[in-house]
Every structure is written in C-alpha cells, then in structure tokens.
Amino acid sequence: MTLLESQELAPESPYVWRARRPGAGHRLICFPHAGAGAPAYTDWAGLLPPGIELVAVQLPGRQNRIAEDPFTDVRALVEVLRHALRPVLDGSFSFFGHSAGAVLAYELARALRARGGGGPAHLFLSAQPAPGETGVRMLHELPDDDFRDEIIALGGIDEEIAEDEDVMESMLYTLRADFTLWERHHPEPGAPLDCPVTVLAGKEDPRAPLDGVERWRDHTTAAFTTEYYPGGHFYFLDSAAEVVSLIGRTMLAGDTHGRHA
Predict the structure, then answer these.
(1) What is the chain's mean pLDDT, rounded?
(2) Domains in the chain: how many in total?
(3) Which residues are catalytic?
(4) Do 57 and 86 form a contact (C-beta atoms < 8 A)?
(5) Any idea what the CATH number is for the domain that residue 151 is in?
(6) Residue 52 lies in a domain
(7) How do residues 169-218 score in pLDDT, each as one tens digit?
(8) Which of 111, 120, 191, 258 has the fewest CB atoms found within 10 Å of its own CB?
(9) Which sign, positive or negative, has the C-alpha torsion 76, 78, 82, 87?
C-alpha cells in the first residue's frame, strides 16, 4: 500500500479528512452528528469496498479544531462547505449524514443543485425525520443538567467520557451549539431533489419516529427507500458493517430500487 492509498482517515484540510484510494470510481462523503467530528467514521474506511473512497467532514469546535467556535448560521456553514469541499466534489460522489449531519448533507445537496453544480449521486440520511416534522423533543434550551442527561441517554458517548467532567464540559458546549443550530433551523421551501434517497434509522430511536422518517420521500423525485436496524439513535455504532455494506452495494450497483423496509 502506497503513501497515497490508506485505510486511515487523515486530515487533508481544515474541513476534509480522507482515506485516499487512487483510482476509486466513487466517493462517499460523510457528515457527522451533533458534537462529533470526522473521526466518527474512522472504521468505515476499512469496511467500504475497494472502489469507494471515504471522505469525512470536520467542522470547527471538535478534535483538532476544538479551539474554533462552532457555526451559528446554517446558510454560512453550507456556503463554506460548498467551497471547502470542492476538491472532493468531482466524479461520482454520494453523501451520508447522521442526525444533524443528515440535515447538513441535505442542505448542501440543495445548495449544489441551486448553483448548477453537480450534486450527490445518492443521498443517505440517518436517524433524522424529514424537514418540518414535529413531535421530537427540543433539547437546546434545557438547563445544563437536564441537557447532559438527555445527551447521555441518547447513547453514543462512552461511559469513561461521560464520567470525565472536563471532557464532558467541552463536549457539551459544542453539542449545545450544534443542537441550537439545527433545532432552530427551518429549511427554505423548494423543489424536491432529483437524486435517489435512502433513509436509515434505528427501530427504537425516539428522535426519528417512523412517520417522520418516511416523509423524506416527499423531498426527492427519484427513488426512495428506507432501512431500519435494531437499536436507538446510535444504531449505526452497533451495525456499522451492515450499514456500510448497504451503502457500498447501493453506490457500486447504482441500485436505486432497493428493498423498501
């Protein structure tokens, strides 16, 4: 394996982490959930088929960018990413976003289309109800202790980290900023996308109720499929191999008529 080809996800620019695979015909660009960064997808590099290169987006306020303030405006974030991701928005690429990352992936796809650029070949949206859906509890205005309890209850945070007050204080600052950003966000009305959409969710996820997930079908004129997995909001941490396998098969086969769960 050459230095230019690696199973390791590594930073290439402030916003782009990549596991380079020269010659790969497809690229999967991943958008992390609230409070998380590109390393959330580290294990995916070794799970994807050889023909797919992995890219993960790194936002301010986490890991190597911990000293930077998180974004407070969705439009500004999308516009920055539209430029920052240009080096990886060539050829055939698809987006995957989990939770808040799903909304970010969706909004970037809309922005690329609106400006005449090439959009994703496929949009994979995880653990997130469709825009405009109500009934999910808002967390960003909760008192600190309640906010912390709700975040821990959702899962996705190791017990050792949850017990480390200093680490949790730093994480909760970014988490609250992200929840504030996305819970206050109301997408502008617009035409549906024209790329296939696959929505994934945990069967026991209180933040992605079935009816809200299914309404993503109204946001594309192309094929729409859903996939449900055992577990809650962070189902994909326990089902990474299955999730990545589904994404890989869909991307390589151009399968826009997969099973509707």
Answers:
(1) 90
(2) 1
(3) 99
(4) no
(5) 3.40.50.1820
(6) yes
(7) 888 999 999 999 999 998 888 899 999 999 999 999 999 999 999 999 99
(8) 191
(9) positive
